[in-house]
């Protein structure tokens, strides 16, 4: 660990952390600052983004609060005068995964509104969401910075067509709101300017649930709990900013991950929350980690000659124990594990909670200690010598499998906020040590560009344009 702390010092990590928090343009390839931390800060400090940033955030938060409370209290109603009962968030990537994960995680705190999420550009998916909804009592939140994202706008148009079978165009302004920078496009869709919430270029999509993208969260749990979520993240921000490295949780977790990735050859990490509420958390981390640090060029543009981003996966315990833990215990791959548990159950079922946490602690102990030949012999005295020798190799566990244990008092909005911010900062530290840009995602652009060309070919009655032979034959097969 001392060597890893020295590594952090050698790359001047402390200076990098300060540059992010003060608003320097650390996302250099997109010429942007990275200031999602400002959204949850109670400090009214100036930044290089501009002195008005705190006022912008405060004004926008107030707008969210007023809107959310009007919907929840039924002060604002649908076009037939009925209060809203359902909310549909239409977005993709960070405009979907973050809010969906938090809404599920904090379901215990939800109010009467039922939240739904549409993301995939899959007509079957859209239809399954809207088929049981009442257009008179459903609010739609379209989240797209450019208001041109193919998946989001296609889904929004389909939903608007469905809505207009029961309502007139004037009703759109009562049932559709937007989170976007493209005011003109949103207004052309039928959304009132007052119902368009701003986005900022210094908030990346996968770190945007703290912003106006989190409106669906606030609608689900109420604005007070949404603020508590921000407060928890803000406290973790201050911890990350101020604590020395040996006591700094995000730094310690990041350094451990670098150790296993770069020095012991572990290619993936598994995250196991021991609460069903966090079932979407591994999915959320997949985007946050792999879109951030899946880079093969350093900050100078040169190809790196070492491993960077880790593969992140996982599921909830104890489900995971009955699924893939065999690979972790006795497989050939080194897979570090993060266990996340909570001491207090939300509904008070202590018998369940004791059994749940005992399983989590037992898995960590088993991964560390394994099982020796002597222990297998001791527990197998009922077997004949011949049968014991036959089974012995298969019942021995090597142990020495690495785990981290995060044991949190209770799943609250505030504690969830701190947990999410912890992993965000871990990502930053890893990227800084690997000397890569963590906050761009150019790798996802090529597929989007090619999809547009292929869509034209699918729709065209003419000869398919130039593609490689494999793609060309697949397009032809789809069209037949």
From TrEMBL:
GO terms for molecular function: carbohydrate derivative binding; glucose-6-phosphate isomerase activity; monosaccharide binding. It catalyses: alpha-D-glucose 6-phosphate = beta-D-fructose 6-phosphate. PROSITE patterns: P_GLUCOSE_ISOMERASE_1, P_GLUCOSE_ISOMERASE_2, P_GLUCOSE_ISOMERASE_3. Its EC number is 5.3.1.9. Pathway: Carbohydrate degradation; glycolysis; D-glyceraldehyde 3-phosphate and glycerone phosphate from D-glucose: step 2/4. The keyword Isomerase applies. The keyword Acetylation does not apply. GO terms for biological process: gluconeogenesis; glucose 6-phosphate metabolic process; glycolytic process. Pfam families: PGI. Keywords: Gluconeogenesis, Glycolysis, Isomerase. GO terms for cellular component: cytosol. InterPro entries: G6P_Isomerase, G6P_Isomerase_C, Phosphoglucose_isomerase_CS, SIS_dom_sf, SIS_PGI_1, SIS_PGI_2. Belongs to the GPI family. This is Glucose-6-phosphate isomerase. It comes from Elysia marginata.
């Amino acid at each position: 660990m001392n060597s890893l702390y020295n590594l952090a010092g050698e790359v001047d990590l402390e200076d990098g952390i300060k540059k992010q928090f003060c608003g320097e343009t650390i996302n250099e390839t997109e010429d942007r600052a990275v200031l999602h931390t400002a959204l949850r800060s109670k400090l009214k400090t100036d930044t290089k983004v501009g002195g008005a940033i705190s006022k912008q955030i405060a004004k926008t938060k107030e707008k969210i609060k007023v809107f959310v409370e009007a919907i929840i209290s039924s002060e604002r109603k649908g076009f037939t005068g009925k209060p809203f009962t359902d909310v549909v968030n239409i977005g993709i990537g960070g405009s979907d995964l973050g809010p969906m994960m938090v809404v599920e995680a904090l379901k215990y705190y939800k109010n009467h509104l039922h939240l739904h999420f549409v993301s995939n550009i899959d007509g079957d998916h859209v239809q399954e969401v809207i088929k049981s909804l009442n257009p008179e009592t459903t609010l739609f939140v379209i989240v797209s910075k450019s208001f041109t994202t193919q998946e989001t706008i296609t889904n929004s148009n389909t939903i608007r067509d469905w809505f207009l079978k029961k309502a007139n165009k004037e009703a759109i302004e009562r049932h559709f709101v937007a989170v976007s920078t493209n005011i003109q496009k949103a207004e052309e869709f039928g959304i009132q300017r007052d119902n368009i919430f701003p986005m900022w270029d210094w908030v990346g999509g996968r770190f945007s649930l703290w912003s106006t993208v989190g409106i669906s969260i606030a609608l689900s749990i109420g604005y007070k709990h949404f603020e508590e979520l921000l407060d928890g993240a803000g406290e973790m921000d201050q911890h990350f900013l101020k604590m020395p490295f040996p006591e700094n949780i995000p730094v310690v977790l990041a350094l451990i991950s670098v150790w296993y990735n770069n020095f012991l050859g572990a290619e993936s990490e598994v995250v196991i929350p021991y609460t069903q509420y966090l079932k979407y958390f591994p999915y959320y981390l997949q985007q946050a980690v792999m879109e951030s640090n899946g880079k093969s060029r350093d900050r100078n543009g040169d190809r790196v000659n070492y491993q960077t981003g880790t593969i992140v996966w996982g599921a909830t315990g104890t489900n995971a124990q009955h699924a893939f833990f065999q690979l972790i215990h006795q497989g050939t791959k080194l897979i570090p594990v993060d266990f996340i548990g909570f001491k207090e159950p939300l509904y008070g079922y202590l018998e369940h909670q004791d059994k749940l946490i005992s399983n989590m602690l037992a898995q960590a102990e088993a991964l560390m200690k394994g099982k020796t030949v002597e222990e297998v012999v001791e527990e197998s005295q009922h077997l004949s010598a011949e049968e014991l020798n036959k089974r012995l190799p298969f019942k021995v566990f090597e142990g020495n499998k690495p785990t981290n244990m995060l044991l949190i008092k209770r799943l609250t909005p505030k504690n969830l906020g701190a947990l999410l911010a912890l992993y965000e900062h871990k990502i930053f530290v890893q990227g800084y040590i690997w000397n890569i840009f963590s906050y761009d995602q150019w790798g996802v652009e090529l597929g989007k560009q090619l999809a547009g060309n292929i869509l034209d070919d699918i729709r065209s009655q003419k000869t398919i344009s130039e593609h490689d032979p494999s793609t060309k034959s697949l397009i032809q097969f789809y069209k037949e």
